[in-house]
Amino acid sequence: MSARTRLGGWILPLSLLIALLLGLLPLHAQLQPLRPYWLALVLAYWVIETPSRAGLGLAFACGLVADLAYGSLLGEQALRLVIMAFILQRFRARLRFFPLSQQALAIGALLVNDRIVDAAVNLALGQPLLPWEYWWAPLLGTALWPPLFLMLDALRLGRRD
């Protein structure tokens, strides 16, 4: 077994753990609404690029861990990530061949959809909706997609560009 194969097995769980930890980092109150949904971005990469290793089950498990880590309603993040992973799996063949800029727009649309699902869950539970400033986070996620994609791709493929 080569060193690349051994290292390659750790990239997926390590990147998801780092994304989970990035979601836990404290931010100033004014920056909090701009926090990107790191876990969704990293999971989206893995669902697109390695569907045999990342799918609905991984999305559900990551969502449950995120629910426990973030202290949110158990199953809320799991639902959001499973919906995102399902849509990505459905359109994966097309998304893979989009230029990176168009992929970023598609990911941005998925992040907006995630906010809509989050708002629907909050509405169904009778909780207050998030302020309008929180709708800016999908734009930041859209801007972060190309560098995140290139970084994870370089790690996955073992390139040193």
Helical residue percent?
Answer: over 70%
Low-confidence stretches: 1-7
Radius of gyration based on Cα positions: 16 Å
* SS strand fraction: under 5%
* Beginning-to-end CA distance, first to last residue: 24 Å
CA-based shape: globular
Kindly state the number of beta strands: 0
Mean pLDDT: 91
Count the DSSP helices.
6
Main sheet record: none
Summarize the structure.
This protein has 161 residues and is mostly helical.
What does this structure look like?
The protein has helices at 3-24, 38-49, 56-70, 76-95, 100-124, 137-157. The protein is built from six helices and no strands. It is mainly alpha-helical and 161 residues long. The two termini are 24 Å apart. The model is unreliable at 1-7 (pLDDT under 50).
Write the layout of secondary structure elements.
Elements: H1 3-24, H2 38-49, H3 56-70, H4 76-95, H5 100-124, H6 137-157
Helix pairs in contact: 1-2, 1-3, 1-6, 2-4, 2-6, 3-4, 4-5, 5-6
Features:
mainly alpha, globular, disordered N terminus
